């Protein structure tokens, strides 16, 4: 019942989003149609001075509409996944420099590898992007400094747990947990964070796409994202990725057939 409720909340969010976009798009089209109409009537009545003004306004409206659809396309375009066995310890360790340059000096960074060199089946570039997105959110949540921890773990999701998560198969997962000691999130924010374009940041600072992209990447990889957060204490975002079958320490990262359709 809880899963069904969550699903219906998600559908409601998608409905609100598409409704909002349709409304904006309609306003832009009204600008174009209205402008053309004025121009047509002015030409018919021989009042051809100042037509540029109306043409420009119509064109500006059309450009806004085009840019809206371009952004939507960029967002919905399925980024191709190059999923293959990936040494997650090595990947997180290699991000040390980049993460240090991303966060502020007053934030301490700790990267904690998991035991037994866990391999996940995932796209390396997308996992890097996801971790970077989470680190940026962590930085923004700690304006007065704090601790950023990137920790790799391996967990077993049993049948009982998987049953509470639609589309998540029981089995072994490699978890990348990105935790901060920042402002945290109230429950009503946590509920909405995976919605595309949801942001609490000032205009120009947040796109509201970070967590929805992290979520999309995890789901496309056959995994999931869990968020634990407490206002005033901090936030931990965990990306679950399917562990590589027959995971062996020192296994190469060479190409390997990936089975489709986890869960
Ligand atoms: P953006 O960062 O552009 O706002 P996101 O989808 O990444 O978009 O995040 C959505 C919202 O979730 C943020 O605006 C913020 O309110 C909240 N959030 C995300 N990560 C954290 C965090 N680590 N600590 C506190 N709030 C967070």
Automatic annotation (TrEMBL):
Q: Does the keyword Kinase apply?
A: yes
Q: Name one GO molecular function term.
A: phosphorelay sensor kinase activity
Q: Which positions fall inside the Histidine kinase domain?
A: 20-245
**Which controlled-vocabulary keywords does the entry list?**
Coiled coil, Kinase, Phosphoprotein, Transferase
Protein name listed in UniProt: histidine kinase
* Lineage of source species: Bacteria, Pseudomonadati, Pseudomonadota, Alphaproteobacteria, Sphingomonadales
Full protein: residues contained: 489 to 751 of 869
């Amino acid at each position: 019942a809880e899963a069904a409720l969550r699903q219906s909340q998600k559908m409601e969010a998608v409905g609100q989003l598409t409704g909002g976009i349709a409304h904006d798009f309609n306003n832009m089209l009204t600008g174009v149609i209205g402008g053309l109409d004025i121009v047509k009537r002015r030409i018919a009545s021989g009042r051809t001075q100042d037509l540029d003004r109306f043409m420009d306004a119509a064109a500006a409206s059309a450009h806004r509409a085009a840019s809206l659809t371009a952004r939507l396309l960029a967002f919905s375009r399925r980024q191709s996944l190059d999923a293959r066995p990936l040494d997650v310890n090595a990947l997180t360790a290699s991000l040390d420099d980049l993460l240090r340059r991303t966060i502020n000096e007053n934030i301490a960074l700790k990267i904690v590898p998991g035991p037994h060199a866990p391999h996940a089946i995932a796209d390396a570039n997308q996992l890097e992007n996801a971790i970077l997105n989470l680190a940026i959110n962590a930085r923004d949540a700690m304006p007065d400094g704090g601790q950023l921890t990137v920790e790799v773990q391996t967990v077993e999701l049993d049948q009982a747990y998987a049953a509470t998560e639609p589309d998540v198969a029981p089995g072994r997962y490699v978890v990348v947990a990105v935790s901060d000691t920042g402002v945290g999130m109230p429950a009503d924010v946590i509920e909405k964070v995976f919605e595309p374009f949801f942001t609490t940041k000032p205009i120009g600072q947040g796109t509201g796409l970070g967590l929805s992209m992290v979520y999309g990447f995890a789901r496309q990889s056959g995994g999931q994202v869990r968020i634990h957060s407490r206002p005033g204490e901090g936030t931990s975002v965990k990306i679950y990725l399917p562990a590589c079958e027959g995971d062996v320490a020192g296994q190469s990262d060479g190409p390997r057939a990936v089975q489709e359709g986890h869960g």
